[in-house]
Amino acid sequence: MTDRRLVWIIAGGLAALAIAALVLAQLLIRPRNAAPAVETASAAPGAAPLAHIRATVFYTAPGGSRLSRAIREIALAETADAQGSEVVNAALQTPRAPLLPAVPAGTTLRGFYIGDDGDAFVDLGGDGLKTAGGGTTAESLAVYAIVNTVTANLPAVKRVQILIDGTEVDTLAGHLDLRRPLSPNMALVQ
Amino acid sequence: MHPACCLLHTAYRVARYPFFAAIVLAGVLLGAQAPAPPSSSAELPPPAATSTVQTIVIDPGHGGDDTGVKAADGVLEKQLTLDIAKRIKTLVESRLGIRVVLTREDDRALPADERAIIANNSRADLFLSLHFNAAPSPAASGAQVYYQHLDREGEAALQATQTAGVRMTAPSGETRSVAFVRWDLAQIRHVDRSAALAGVLVDVLGGAQVPMDTPPLQQAPLRGLASVNMPAVLMELAYLTNPAQAKAATSTEFQDAVAHAVHDGVLRFRGQAATAQ
Q1: For B222, which residue in chain A has the nearest alpha carbon?
Q2: Rounded to a whole number, what is the distance in Å from the CA of B42 to chain A's nearest CA?
Q3: Residue A125 burial class via C-beta count within 10 angstroms: exposed 0-12, middle 13-18, buried 19 and up
């Protein structure tokens, strides 16, 4: 074996060791950065890193007629009202497949506050609700995705009243009675 | 609650709900010959389970500008509910001799309170609201039957009607114990029988080969049932967001199957009520 050939063999061995070290490092670091079952709510570009919490958020299950839980990372807020806004906004976002949205696309959160008696008020707006087709199932999924999400993450809140454009309404599309605050409905969750 | 407070509360509700129409549901003469002392609490009996179903109200959901669910092929919920309501009316009136009142007989918008007023003023024995469903996925399939869910306020109001009556003196001099029930909670005294009716309808729909959702029996706080003063259910007969179900819903076979199921359900419910007496 010539000296030149020996140098090539040693160089190749070092390169293989370096690649193996890199792969090992990736495998060791990955579990801390990416938990597969958790979705992270997108932060504004350039924003300072925020503390996050894991929230239980309800979306439509793949079958289309029940709710299903998902765990999402959302920003930790300083007040209960602000935290409520964070969890409702998570429920309004499109979930990762195979889950489906429960609240019609285009629905926005106008405000969230907790009354003195512990009932939470969720003020929704946007065109999504106005164009919602109706049906008791679709309406129940939309309403209870919000009610269940709020009560699951804010233990002090037992009931939720949904407002549309700042005012009390009879229903979203003719079925569920929204004139009073609603308690969570776990019977709808698979 | 002091009777005066109860009356004030009722007056407040009258002012708040414009359609508050005479919700004195349980004025019961208690011991006319020997009136109970005014201080005693008079317990009101539960609603009577009539063995004769003489009138039923069929409520075709939606109407007018409110089209309800629109299927991908353009079929409208408001039209399907009206078509099936008319089939039920024809079948039940001709075979059972029971009067069937439709809350609407043409394509017109009708608020929930007006539907309840029609039913309550008809002194009907049963109220069936017909609807077609929608879901975020086209996979959702099958019929559901809903009855009213009582929330915390409803439970409290129900308890109040069972234990607290207001004693009033009639022009004849008789003393009556009268329970005031809020217009928006009129259904609360009928929830048990509504649940029984819903269970019967789930059975007969399944027996008539109408595809059923899982679970088919559901409970929800429904706006359309809240003020109905009789056993009442809402039937979601199929998902119009499911193309195969939307197509089937327009067929004579499906609509006849639903009509016959309702006919059988009324018959069976009437039999159950008679047995219970």
Answers
A1: A176
A2: 30
A3: middle
The number of residues making up chain A comes to: 190
Q: Which of B137, B146, B214, B228 to mutate to test the interface with A (most CBs of A within 10 A)?
A: B137
Interface test with A, best of B69, B183, B212 (most A CBs within 10 A): B69
User: Does residue B221 have a cis bond before it (omega within 30 degrees)?
Assistant: no
Q: Which residues of A touch B138 (CB under 8 A)?
A: 64
d(C-alpha B245, C-alpha B263), whole Å: 22
* Three-state secondary-structure class, residue A27: helix
A98 prior amide bond cis, ω within 30: yes
The chain B residue lying nearest A133, using CA atoms, is B69
Averaged pLDDT, B2-7: 37
Sign for the pseudo-dihedral over CA of B92, B93, B98, B99? positive
> Six-digit token pair at B110?
């009708």
B246 — phi, psi (to 5°)?
Answer: -65, -40
| Shortest CA distance from B216: residue in chain A | A65
Neighbours of A150 (CB within 10 A): 25
Q: How confident is the model at residue A41 (pLDDT cuts 50, 70, 90)?
A: low
Average pLDDT over residues B201-216: 96
pLDDT digits (tens, 9 = 90+) for A86-129: 999 999 999 999 999 999 999 999 999 999 999 999 999 988 77
Assess whether the previous peptide bond of B215 is cis (omega < 30° from 0): yes
Tell the residue number behind the tokens 């503390």, with chain if given: A51
Q: What residues of chain A lie within 8 A of the CB of B226, using their CB?
A: 177
Please classify residue B22 by burial: count the beta carbons closer than 10 Å to its beta carbon, then call 0-12 exposed, 13-18 middle and 19+ buried. exposed
Q: What's the CA gap between A186 and A144, in Å, rounded?
A: 9
pLDDT at B213 > cutoff 60: yes
B236 neighbourhood in chain A, CB within 8 Å: 135-137
User: Could you read off the pLDDT of B41-52 as tens digits, one per residue?
Assistant: 334 444 555 558
B222 and A175 within 8 Å at the Cβ level: the answer is yes
Nearest to B103 by CA among B64, B55, B58, B53: B58
Per CB-CB distance under 8 Å, the chain B contacts of A130 are none
pLDDT for residue B168: 74
Tell me what ipTM this predicted complex has.
0.79
B145 beta partners: B217, B235
Which run of H or of E encompasses B275?
Answer: helix B252-276
> Is B153 at the interface with chain A, CB within 8 A?
yes
